[in-house]
Every structure is written in structure tokens, then in C-alpha cells.
Write a structure and sequence with these properties.
Strand content: 5-15%
CATH class of the largest domain: Alpha Beta
Distance between the termini: 85 Å
Structural class: alpha+beta
Shape: elongated
Number of domains: 2
Number of helices: 8
Radius of gyration: 41 Å
Number of strands: 8
Bound molecules: zinc ion
Order of helices and strands: HEEEEHEHHEHEHEHH
CATH architecture of the largest domain: 2-Layer Sandwich
Largest sheet: 4 strands, antiparallel
Length: 301
């Protein structure tokens, strides 16, 4: 207890001693109090640090997860198709076996997975069409219409008036065409010039026969390839996402005669790659299949 005031103070020494004797326990108490204070302070700091560390750890985990997802997405996006002699292109995220895919390969070897397939987005493109054809056959899929219109308009600016000679063909119409050639010229000719129902690109709505509006000018004939418009199509259609599907020097591969009028839409990246590599769609198929396998794993398409 602090009682300096009531103690008799005789001399400075006594006072000094008395005060010392009284103050020492008090100082010890203060010292202990100070120690407790310091310990409490350290504890508080330690506790504070612990809480801070816990809070800091949570966002870090989220961040790591987000980074992982981002990296994963980036890896998925990097699935590419590289054709020999061409720059890599990003793989389309879709099943190329589906008739709806822009990269579907339809041929004598690979028929449509659904032979009754009919696109749901057929439109009449805003360019001339052969007037005596049905609305179906003058149509193409909406997804190809803008590039088709742009190409035909650019051809017109060069002085070539083109039209859709034959666009979408149903399974039934393809059957009529095939049987007509079969009856007139026999199976060998029919197989070379036409496709069986379910094996025609026309049924996808992604292919069409392009021709001069003047049907007297090599309409659906090999000589179309030697006309100015035919040459222009061969040289420029890839810029609009189209390919001449059955080239003159690849008949063994495509199993079709040279058809400079038959163009198929695959989108600009693949059309560019096919142009640069010189491959037909048939030859590109193994490369597309490889990308499809990777996509099936990565995206579970
Ligand atoms: Zn055709």
C-alpha cells in the first residue's frame, strides 16, 4: 500500500530507506503488471496474426482454384488443327460427326449419321437462285448465307453474275436425282456423278452448285472451271469460307469427278488451311478426327 504521507520522515536517508522499502513491492507489482501487459500484447498480436493469416489463406485458395480453371480453359481452347503446309487453326467445339457441324465430312465412305437429316435453319440467300427449283433446293443453311452473299456480290463486282443452281436437297430429292442418272446412264456413271441418299453434302445445307445466271454458260459442266467465273471461284472462294470440294486432280480421293461448280462451306479458318495445304476435306479428315478426340475428352461433347 502506498502510505508515504503517513510515515514519519526523519531524514532523507530514512525517508529514502522507508520509501525504498515501501516502493519495492509496488515496483514489483508494476513490473509484474507490465510483464502481464507485454505478454497480453504479444498474445493479442499473435492472435491477430493468426486470424489475419486465416483470412488471407481463404482468398489464396480461391485464387488458386480460379487460376487452375483459367489455365484449364486456356488449354481447352488451345486444341488446334494443323494441316501440313498450313498455319494451325483453332478447333471448332462441336462433334464433327454430327450433320450440323461445319466440319462434317460427308462422302461415299462417310455417310450422314442420320440419313433423314434436315437442317432447321434453311433460308433463301439474298442472291439469285435458279427459278425453276423448289424453295428447298434454292435454300442453304442460314449459317453460310452471309458469306455466300458476300462472295456472289464480290463476283458480280468483277463482272460475273452467279446464282444458286442447287442448294439443299432432301433425302427424297437426292434419291430422285440418283435414280434418274442410274436409269439413264447406269450405276457406274450414277456413282461417279451423284450421291446416294444420306451420302450427299447437299443434304447438309452447307453445299451448293454455283453457276452463271446464264445457264447456257457451262451450267453444272466441267467447262465451268475454265470460265472466268469458274476460275475466280477456284481462286477466291476460300476467302469466304468455301472450298471447291471435288478438284480435278483429286478424283481418286474424293471418289467424284471434277466438279468446279460444287462448293462446300467449312468456315474461313478451315477453308484457308485447306487452301494453303492443298488437301481435300477427305484428306483433312484424320486431322479433324484427332482434334475431335481431344475435344471429346476436354469438353465432353
Ligand atoms: Zn453439287
Amino acid at each position: 500500500m502506498l502510505n508515504i504521507a503517513i510515515h514519519p520522515v526523519v531524514g532523507s536517508d530514512v525517508t529514502s530507506v522507508t520509501c525504498w522499502c515501501i516502493l519495492k513491492p509496488m515496483q514489483m507489482k508494476r513490473s509484474k503488471t507490465g510483464l502481464y501487459f507485454v505478454l497480453a500484447l504479444i498474445l493479442a498480436i499473435a492472435l491477430g496474426w493468426f486470424v489475419f493469416a486465416q483470412q488471407a489463406a481463404a482468398p489464396t485458395k480461391t485464387s488458386t482454384k480460379a487460376t487452375t480453371q483459367k489455365t484449364s480453359t486456356t488449354v481447352q481452347k488451345k486444341i488446334e488443327v494443323t494441316l501440313p503446309g498450313a498455319s494451325p487453326i483453332e478447333a471448332r467445339v462441336e462433334d464433327y460427326h454430327e450433320p450440323t457441324s461445319l466440319w462434317v465430312v460427308v462422302s461415299k465412305t462417310y455417310p450422314l449419321s442420320n440419313d433423314a437429316y434436315r437442317p432447321t435453319d434453311l433460308v433463301l440467300p439474298g442472291i439469285p437462285q435458279r427459278k425453276d427449283k423448289s424453295q428447298d433446293e434454292r435454300s442453304v443453311r442460314q449459317v453460310i448465307a452471309p458469306d455466300l452473299v458476300a462472295m456472289v456480290n464480290d463476283a458480280k463486282a468483277q463482272g460475273y453474275d452467279l446464282m444458286v443452281g442447287s442448294g439443299f436437297r432432301s433425302k427424297e430429292l437426292q434419291s430422285v436425282y440418283y435414280n434418274s442418272i442410274l436409269k439413264a446412264s447406269g450405276q457406274a456413271v450414277a456413282d461417279k456423278q451423284s450421291a446416294l441418299p444420306g451420302k450427299s453434302e447437299h443434304q447438309t445445307g452447307l453445299a451448293l452448285d454455283i453457276a452463271y445466271t446464264d445457264m447456257g454458260n457451262c451450267y453444272i459442266e466441267v467447262c465451268f472451271g475454265s470460265t472466268p467465273a469458274g476460275k475466280w471461284i477456284a481462286a477466291n472462294s476460300y476467302k469466304y469460307g468455301f472450298i471447291v470440294r471435288y478438284p480435278e486432280d483429286k478424283t481418286e480421293i474424293t471418289q467424284y469427278q471434277y466438279e468446279p461448280w460444287h462448293i462446300r462451306y467449312v468456315g474461313k479458318p478451315l477453308a484457308q488451311a485447306l487452301h494453303d495445304s492443298g488437301l481435300t476435306l477427305d484428306e483433312a479428315r484424320p486431322y479433324l478426327e484427332k482434334a475431335r478426340d481431344a475435344l471429346l475428352t476436354a469438353h465432353k461433347i
